[in-house]
Design brief:
- With 703 residues, the chain is α/β, with parallel strands linked by helices.
- The protein has a six-stranded mixed beta sheet with strand order 10-11-12-7-13-14, with helices on both faces. A four-stranded antiparallel beta sheet has the order 6-5-8-9, sandwiched between helices.
- It starts with a helix and ends in a 6-residue tail after the last helix.
- One of its GO terms (molecular function) is ATP hydrolysis activity.
- It comes from Ostreococcus mediterraneus.
């Protein structure tokens, strides 16, 4: 099959079209295709939102999430309030005798332990936030610096500062802790806040370093258990074995607990009593009962291995640990975000005399985690505003949207030609040596316009971009090919080939700016409404000079054309909050990328997880994009007949990652039927099922 297609007339037409495209050199803006990247970088800076704007919008979204998220409210605030009252009732008015000393120390340790363990509850929510950060960072919506700053200001601090105040307002007085003055109460709350922040920063660093929530929970729990064991309550600090003392020195629980205990017993106006040792004296007729020995609070500290002079050191060490864990979290975030400019592809001379492109791009995650990443739709040339966003089947809707785009401040009036994406002999090899793709070639875009003289007027159908689909059995490399074309391949892949836009070689960072990418799974903020989410992206990704009114019109136009205007005030929803259906979320994901009017749109199996009706609606939306100049490439497993009829061109991959067909969808059936070793299709078997059956059922030698 592979050889038959390579020798077919359709492949000859593809090669001729590719040669014509490279000869014309297309109409891509020179700034977009600049190899040195200087003009591209200047345009990117011009279009990027300022650091202050990014932080402001991110803080607003995190603040809304904080008071809308039921899990955060119940766990961190309501449960802390209930536990604070419960601890105060259980340890009510602890005395100054030995039992009271035990209760005081036990209550302090339990409060510290409770707040520390509560930090683990942030891992599931933090994981969702991190997935959202990675997808939006891949689209260059904002930077890692802005995200980290906003997270510290309006997520970490409020969530970790407010719960300790419940224990300061209620538990402190109910237990009868140090009444020496307001300074002791403030120190109590400060140490709780500081230790809570340290524990949370540790959890965030572990969560940023681990892609799996279960693994992150296990690692963080192990750290906490070791820190609790050497915290100074379960094991006397003076009796820790010499070979394990270094663990106690590193335990944030040890430093936090010692600071709390010192604050409780130093300068306490109460006089505490300890039990005197048993005496063997027979004076008075037999053994004596224990005597009560009055001691100051400092003596209590030394009895249990605590040292008052170490309290300032404990606080300083906690601050240092907090900065260290926060820095570790920041480093892991930067690493996971994959700074795009560091991984642009090089060009090497191939063995057969042609230019082969070696692509090593962002190391976002392994193959199982690839669905988390969305490529950039923030374009860096005039094509940004001119291509249009979406064309519905109704001309009035098209005119309305086109007019709304032209009214956006900063948009250019000149309309660019649609983008034609070509790739030749793309080879993908894993580090293990296994080839995923073998010499894959294809053309996506308005191929009918190629080779036509400039003075010849084209019809709208001939000038429109097309809908290109990548088909193949599971494991054929559909998503891998889509990621490579979108500049989203991972470092685990060694890639060679020639990839061009309108005949111009283009590097991975530039294709990400030129295109939009919709992932297979919709990674959206569940606590935001549809309008809030789209407005957030529009403010960050549209030109910096765009007015608020123009941004609002752009968002409203996008929602209206995609049919989600009635969902504007609906919450998107997540595992903690009910929201939109699968089809509605998919349309929101598409709208998020279409806000920037990308020249090329990539979609990874957009119909997966949707019922047949919603799947048809989504593909119908995508098929209409071509009339506004957007070239659409999608991977799809097995489209229905009504969906297949909407596809202009298809590429069929074999199970080994080779091309068995690439060309117009209307000619696919005739091509397969022309092969003598292929059984003719049944009358009621549609072409998509027929092609996949041929690929799957044919012997390896026939393929």
């Amino acid at each position: 099959m592979v050889r038959a297609f390579a020798e077919s007339e359709i492949e000859s037409m593809n090669k001729a079209s590719h040669a014509d495209i490279c000869g014309q050199r297309g109409s891509v803006s020179p700034r977009l295709i600049s190899i040195d990247g200087e003009e591209v970088e200047a345009e990117r800076v011009k279009r990027a939102a300022s650091f202050g704007t990014q932080v402001k919008l991110l803080c607003g979204r995190l603040l809304r999430q904080m008071y809308r998220h039921p899990f955060l409210i119940y766990v961190h605030f309501i449960s802390s309030f209930i536990v604070a009252l419960g601890v105060g009732g259980i340890f009510w008015h602890s005395g100054s005798n030995q039992g009271g000393i035990q209760n005081r120390m036990g209550s302090l340790f339990f409060i510290l332990l409770f707040l520390t363990l509560m930090s683990l509850s942030s891992l599931p929510v933090w994981k969702e936030d991190r997935l959202l950060f990675k997808t939006e960072r891949a689209s260059r919506v904002y930077g890692a610096d802005a995200y980290f700053t906003s997270m510290l200001l309006f997520d970490l601090l409020p969530m970790r500062v407010l719960p300790p105040f419940f224990f300061g307002f209620f538990s402190y007085g109910m237990i009868g802790l140090n009444e020496g003055g307001e300074w002791n109460l403030l120190t109590f709350v400060f140490v709780l806040i500081l230790t809570n922040i340290v524990a949370t920063c540790l959890c965030m660093a572990v969560g940023a370093a681990n892609r799996n929530v279960s693994a992150a929970n296990m690692v963080a729990s192990l750290f906490f258990l070791v820190s609790i064991l050497f915290g100074g309550f379960l094991v006397n600090k003076d009796h820790i074995p010499w070979y394990a003392r270094w663990v106690a020195y590193l335990s944030f629980m040890s430093h936090g607990y010692e600071a709390l205990v010192v604050n409780e017993f130093v300068s306490n106006p109460l006089t505490f009593t300890l039990t005197e040792s048993w005496s063997n004296s027979t004076t008075g007729g037999g053994q004596k009962l224990p005597n009560q020995v009055p001691v100051p609070g400092e003596k209590v500290l030394f009895t249990f291995g605590f040292h008052p002079y170490l309290a300032p050191w404990d606080v300083g060490f906690l601050i240092a640990q907090g900065f260290l864990f926060a820095f570790g979290c920041y480093v892991f975030l930067k690493a996971s975000s994959g700074d795009a400019e560091l991984f642009d592809g090089d060009y090497e001379e191939g063995s057969h005399g042609t230019d082969e492109r070696v692509v090593e791009v962002d190391d976002f995650a392994d193959a199982s985690d690839r669905f988390l990443h969305r490529s950039s739709a923030s374009m860096t040339s005039d094509v940004v505003e001119s291509n249009g966003m979406f064309a519905s089947a109704h001309e009035s809707d098209v005119a309305f949207l086109e007019q709304s785009l032209l009214n956006v401040e900063g948009a250019d009036d000149e309309v660019e030609d649609p983008c034609i994406l070509t790739w030749v002999d793309v080879v993908c090899t894993l580090r293990s040596g296994r080839r995923v793709l073998n010499n894959v070639s294809g053309i996506a875009g308005p191929v009918n316009a190629v080779g036509v003289p400039s003075d010849v007027e084209l019809t709208s159908a001939e000038h429109a971009a097309d809908l290109f689909a990548i088909l193949g059995p599971s494991g054929a490399g559909k998503t891998t090919l889509l990621d490579i074309l979108a500049g989203r391949a991972t470092r685990t892949h060694s890639i060679r080939g020639d990839i061009r836009v309108n005949g111009q070689p283009i590097v991975s960072s530039q294709i990400r700016r030129l295109s939009g990418y919709v992932t297979q799974d919709d990674v959206l903020p569940g606590t935001a409404t549809v309008h809030e989410h789209l407005l957030f992206h529009a403010k960050l990704r549209l030109p910096s000079g765009t007015s608020s009114e123009a941004i609002r019109k752009r968002v409203c136009a996008t929602m209206q054309i995609l049919g989600i205007e009635k969902l504007a005030d609906s919450f998107i929803g997540d595992q903690f909050q009910r929201g939109l259906s699968g089809g509605e979320k998919r349309r929101v994901s598409i709208a998020t990328e279409l806000l920037m009017s990308p020249g090329i749109m990539f979609l990874d199996e957009p119909t997966t997880g949707l019922d047949s009706t919603n799947a048809a609606k989504v593909v119908d939306i995508l098929s209409s994009l071509g009339t506004m100049g957007t070239t659409v490439l999608l991977s799809i497993h097995q489209p229905r007949p009504d969906i297949f009829r909407l596809l202009d061109r298809v590429l069929v991959l074999s199970g080994e990652g080779s091309v068995v067909y690439s060309g117009p969808s209307a000619l696919a059936s005739a091509h397969f039927a022309s092969m003598p070793f292929v059984t003719l299709p049944l009358a009621d078997l549609h072409i998509a099922d027929y092609m996949l059956d041929v690929v799957l059922k044919s012997s390896r030698s026939d393929v």
